[in-house]
Amino acid sequence: MPLKTLTEYEELARVAHGHLCAGQILGLRMALCGLRLLEMDDPLGRDRKRLVTYVEIDRCMTDAIGVVTGCRLGKRALKFRDFGKAAATFCDLAGRRAVRVSARESSKQRAREMYPEIAGNNQQQMRAYRELPDEELFEIQWVRVATPPEDLPGYKAPRVVCAQCGEGISFAREVTYQGRVLCRACAGEGYYSPL
């Protein structure tokens, strides 16, 4: 399925995310820029298994990126690295190349300069983010991303059981600690504590 227009993606993003905001438009534009640079025009079709996307923030922008790219956590094609930055890296697995696209910090000020008559930052930014050329909106950097096989879509590995809690562990995420196979939570890396 070839790429759509920004307007078409805006409606899809509105439905997927629940509202349309400046972050959504920024994410749509970011994904379209990344795909254009990688020369991928069918992310939901023939390019589907070639694309992995790393996002660096858990905000509105990320949902919009998924709308364009089709990358999802459940497909193992969307990777989250919590850097708190409005940035994403688009990886072409077949071509072994990747491009990181980050929002220029100056884009918000640029929106205020372009549309001082519009009240509200979100409305100013939405309009400006639709119109600014990629060069003014984004920093673009070609990068190398080392993605181990166990992080790639389609990876298969035996499932192991944690010796302490008895839960199954997939995708080689187990830890061997003092000769025992443990899940990361039982090995002390948990984000939760039992009550």
How would you describe what is shown here?
With 195 residues, the protein is α+β, with helices and mostly antiparallel strands. The protein folds into two domains: 6-147, 60s Ribosomal Protein L30, Chain: A (2-Layer Sandwich); 157-189, Wheat Germ Agglutinin (Isolectin 2), domain 1 (2-Layer Sandwich), CATH 3.30.60. Helix content is 34%, strand content 19%. The protein has helices spanning 6-17, 22-37, 60-69, 107-114, 121-131, 134-137, 185-189, and strands spanning 51-55, 78-80, 87-92, 97-103, 138-143, 160-161, 168-169, 175-177, 180-182. The strands form three sheets. The protein has a five-stranded mixed beta sheet with strand order 2-1-3-4-5. Strands 6-7 form a two-stranded antiparallel sheet. Helix 2 runs parallel beside helix 3. It is elongated and about 65 Å long.
Q: What's the short version?
A:
This protein has seven helices and nine strands; from the N terminus they run ααβαβββαααβββββα.
Structure characteristics:
single chain, 195 residues, alpha+beta, two-stranded antiparallel ribbon, 7 helices
Q: Give the CA-CA distance, first to last residue.
A: 48 Å
User: Measured on Cα atoms, how large is the radius of gyration?
Assistant: 20 Å
- Give the overall average pLDDT: 95
Which shape, going by the Cα principal axes? elongated
Instruction: Give the fraction of residues assigned to helices.
Output: 25-40%
For this entry, what is the oligomeric state of its chains?
Answer: single chain
* CATH topology call of the largest domain: 60s Ribosomal Protein L30, Chain: A
Main beta sheet: 5 strands, mixed
Q: Which class of the largest domain in CATH terms?
A: Alpha Beta
Question: What is the number of helices?
Answer: 7
Strand percentage: 15-25%
Q: Helix- and strand-based class?
A: alpha+beta
**Strand adjacency order, main sheet:** 2-1-3-4-5
What is the annotated CATH architecture of the largest domain?
A: 2-Layer Sandwich
Structural domain count: 2
Name the helix and strand elements from N-terminus to C-terminus, one letter apiece: HHEHEEEHHHEEEEEH
Q: What ranges have pLDDT less than 50 throughout 5 or more consecutive residues?
A: none
The tally of strands reads 9
